[in-house]
Amino acid sequence: MKKKNLLTLVVVTFMLTTLAFSGWGKRSNGGRNNQIIQDMVSQMPYEELSQAEKDYILKMREEEKLARDVYLTLYEVWGSQVFLNISGSEQTHMDAVKTLIDKYGLTDPMTSNDRGVFSDSKLKELYDSLVAKGKESITEAFKVGATIEDLDIYDLDEAIVKSDNMDVVFVFENLRKGSENHMRAFVSQLERYGLSYTPQYISQEEYETIISSESETGQGYGRRGNRNW
After folding, report:
1. Phi/psi at 40 (nearest 5 deg)?
2. Which residues are within 8 A (CB) of 106 and not within 5 positions of it... i.e. 6 or more apart?
3. How far apart are the C-alpha atoms of 19 and 217, rounded to whole Å?
C-alpha cells in the first residue's frame, strides 16, 4: 500500500472512531450532522483531486439524490415510516458530498432540487423504473430500497479504492456505512413478510457480511429503524 493511502486510512479510521464515541448522529437533526461533516472536512488538508475522484464526487451527489427522491415518493405511496426516515438520511448524504464540491470548487451536477430531476439522463430513467416497480406492492417497494443501497455500496466500494484524498475517503466511508445500515433496514422489513433480497451489484459474500453485522454508529437507519446518520 502506498504511504499516502496508508496515512489516509489511519487518519480516517481515527476520525470515524472519534465520531462513533461522540455518538454522532444519534437521534440528532440533520443540521447538526451537516455542520459536523463540514467541520471535519474543512480540517482535512486540501489535496489535488484526481479525475477519478472528481467523477465519483459528482456521481455520488446525484446518486444520493436518487435515493432520497425515490424514498420520498414511495413514502407518499405506502406511508411506511422507514422511507421517510431514510430519505432524511439521504439528504444528509447529499449535503456531505456537497461539502466536497464546495471545498474543491467543482460544478454541482444537481441543478434542481425538484424530485426526479437529474442532469444524468440514466439516473432519470432509473428513477422512473424504480418508482414504477416500488408502486406495485409494499414488498416490491422494500426491494427497491434494498436495490438502491446495493448499488450505492457497489459504487462506493469502487470510489473508495480509487480515491486517496483524506477528505474524499472520509465522506465516502461514511456514506457507505450509512448505506449498509439502510440495506439492513429494508431487508428487515422484507423479512417481516417472509421474503429475502438477492444482491444485484455487490457479491453474495459481501451482502451476507453486511446483513449479519450490527448497525454502525454514526449514520443510517438500522434494523429497528433507529436514526443515526
Report:
1. -65, -45
2. 54, 57, 58, 100
3. 8
Q: CA of 135: how far to CAs of 132, 190, 209, in Å?
A: 5, 15, 29
For residue 206, give its domain range.
Answer: 3-18+50-211
pLDDT digits (tens, 9 = 90+) for 161-176: 999 999 999 999 999 9
The per-residue pLDDT for range 17-69, each reduced to its tens digit, is: 444 433 443 434 556 667 888 889 989 999 999 999 999 999 999 999 999 99
For residue 30, being part of any structural domain is answered with no
Residue 160 Cα distances to 1, 69, 149, 168, angstroms: 14, 24, 16, 8
- Burial letters 59-86, b for 16+ CB under 10 A, else e: bbbbbbbbbbbbbbbbbeebebebbebb
Residue 65 lies in a domain: yes
What total of structural domains would you count in the chain?
1
Give burial (CB, 10 Å; 0-12/13-18/19+) of 151: buried
Burial code (b: 16+ CB inside 10 Å, e: under 16) for 181-214 equals bbbbbbbbbbeeeeeebebeebeeebbeebbeee
Read off the CATH number of the domain in which 179 is found: 1.20.1260.10
Ordered DSSP codes for 142-154: HHHHHHHHHHHHH
For residue 60, being part of any structural domain is answered with yes
Residue at 23 is within a domain? no
